[in-house]
Design a protein that fits this description.
Number of helices of chain A: 13
Oligomer: homodimer
Structural class of chain A: alpha/beta
Strand content of chain A: 15-25%
Largest interface: A-B, 54 and 54 residues
Distance between the termini of chain A: 71 Å
Radius of gyration of chain A: 25 Å
Number of strands of chain A: 12
CATH topology of the largest domain in chain A: Rossmann fold
Order of helices and strands of chain A: HHHHEHEHEHEEHEHEHEHEHEHEE
CATH architecture of the largest domain in chain A: 3-Layer(aba) Sandwich
Shape of chain A: elongated
DNA sequence: CTGAAAGCGCTTACAG
DNA sequence: CTGAAAGCGCTTACAG
């Protein structure tokens, strides 16, 4: 690997000068600049970021902790964060916690980012606990994006899951349904989906509806609970089924087709997220979460924290999405 | 930030000893080990990966260059690579080239990874040219995954796009279609999709069919060419339309519905990728690319190269996917 | 079994 | 405008 030393020798200057040219520190003769750049180009020199990071005591590296890259909502977030970060002149690196049981491995991913001495950290994975982040709050600015965050010392930019649940519940109630099944994953499986599900149930009950709460605590098994809801639909004990994610709604739709149930004839269905491509063709009634706003605002907050540590008061901002109508939500049977 | 120095002081040993305990170099007294671990825990010490990287002259960092995280196929690859990498005891960091015009920015992402002195590089983005990678081939093992690769010095693990095109073409021809529109993006827009499209066209022609090649070179504008194909369908000059990705097929389906065309009544449709969730509910006939195999094999090859540089002969392996039947492919009108 | 010392590749005051 | 030198936080021969 070619080092700065090699460039210096080739350009007949000192390492200090090469460094100044590359960093862009002003007092350098134009002729020298050119000599150095030529040597850099000819040798194909790429500065060692480790040495740079060690030497300057600051970092423009931003770490992003994403949960499951195969979830389209995370993919979109990742992509948007990437754009936002680079428009702020920062660099993004991403780590994915290996998703086995629980949060153990998320911690490993966290330590990896911290080891790289990122200048700021974006946490979008829901399962890692705020208390796990606590020990590092003094050394690096942390912003939660798109995940439920209540910690008094961690900035949060996320979705208004309570309102989302209420919005969807209203639509279902307004369609005339009186008896509704709601799938509610355990909080440790997905905090966001848990929150959504609970909110749906609470608001339906608030409007006097009959609610079947179908709780699941199977991690990585989205099919859990689907069979129960199929039964409720078959027996006519529920005329609508609400899911806390489009993914789960799709699984139900598949199962319903397989079981010969008509949607929305026998059972209406709603999802939540609105990110998966082609949902409109499926006709799923859902809610589009405002990923764009959350990503943009999240970086904005992090950037401020990085340039002025401790300057900003901790806030938990929440953004609300929009209902997306679809043929899977019909009038009550 | 707490340094090794602080740990050493707290444990009453030298930095060398702390390092030995943490790295796991054998000759250390059990009592000392415990003292050190206690100090590490109490101080919340996370080793500085930059300093480590600088000091040991090797790296277990693997870099992954992904193109567009919002593409579900990349998301799945990312996720699978993550699992494979960590099962090999390596660490993964991901960089996303900011996608503006052309490949300029992909180079920046590449340099970023190289700057971090990754021990190996996985390149999955199709637009970066093999010649751009050339200068670095001597310093770091590079494996192309899931992208078309012909370079004699770069290992490739990818999809058999030619066969994929042929498989889909065969299905369409067998359904009795005689006149087919094929969307073919320019190679610089997507090498893989270009290859697929060309292969479809060539194989349809080989079976004596009438092929309308609809070529597009609009980057980031998947709608390009859709209108032309709608016209062909409307005029009855094509009874089937083949798309090089599910994404584009979905866009067409949407447009066809909007235009009052029946699928497959007026026009049959096929896609390619098979990754998007809920495709079965849409009924899209497509081909599922073997992302799992490509990811697993890609890491395997990279890992071998990292542990035995220059030991392996360069190969270009290709994996073939499976046709996924769907209602959008019907008999010719 | 443990410590003092050199070195990894940079950046940045400090002199000149 | 430029160079010599110290220092960033580690690891690893080398002594002891």
């Amino acid at each position: 690997m070619v080092r700065m030393e090699d460039v210096a020798r080739a350009a007949n200057v000192s390492r200090a000068t090469v460094s100044r040219v590359l960093v862009g520190t002003p007092p350098v003769a134009e002729a020298t600049r050119e000599k150095v750049f030529r040597a850099v180009r000819e040798l194909g020199y790429v500065p060692n970021a480790m040495a740079q990071g060690l030497s300057k005591r600051s970092s423009d590296l931003v770490g992003l902790l994403v949960r499951d890259p195969r979830n389209p909502a995370y993919g979109l977030l990742h992509s948007l964060v990437q754009v936002a970060v680079s428009s702020h002149g920062l660099e993004l690196i991403t780590a994915v916690p290996h998703w086995k049981e629980g949060a153990e491995d998320e911690l490993a991913a966290l330590r990896r980012m911290l080891g790289l001495r990122v200048g700021g950290l974006l946490v979008s994975t829901g399962v890692i606990r705020a208390t796990d982040l606590e020990p590092f709050l003094d050394s690096v600015p942390v912003v939660s994006v798109g995940r439920v965050e209540d910690h008094p010392r961690i900035h949060g930019v996320s979705y208004n899951e309570d309102v989302h649940g209420a919005m969807l519940a209203d639509k279902v109630a307004s369609a005339g349904h009186r008896s509704v099944a709601v799938l509610i994953p355990a909080a440790w499986v997905s905090t966001a989906e848990n929150r959504r599900g609970l909110s749906m149930a609470v608001h339906l009950e608030g409007r006097g509806l009959d609610v079947h709460r179908v709780e699941t605590n199977a991690f990585g098994q989205p099919e859990a609970g689907i069979a129960r809801i199929l039964d409720l639909a078959r027996d006519g004990r529920a005329t609508a089924a609400m899911f806390p994610s489009d993914n789960k709604a799709l699984i139900f739709l598949r199962a319903a087709h397989g079981a010969g149930l008509a949607v929305p004839g026998d059972i209406s269905v709603t999802g939540c997220d609105g990110i998966i491509q082609g949902l409109d063709l499926v006709g799923l009634a859902t809610l589009r979460i405002p990923v764009e706003q959350v990503a943009a605002r999240g970086i904005e907050v992090l950037e401020r924290l990085m340039s002025d540590p401790g300057g900003t008061e901790v806030r938990h901002e929440k953004f609300t999405g929009e209902f997306v109508p679809g043929a899977t939500l019909g009038p009550a049977a």
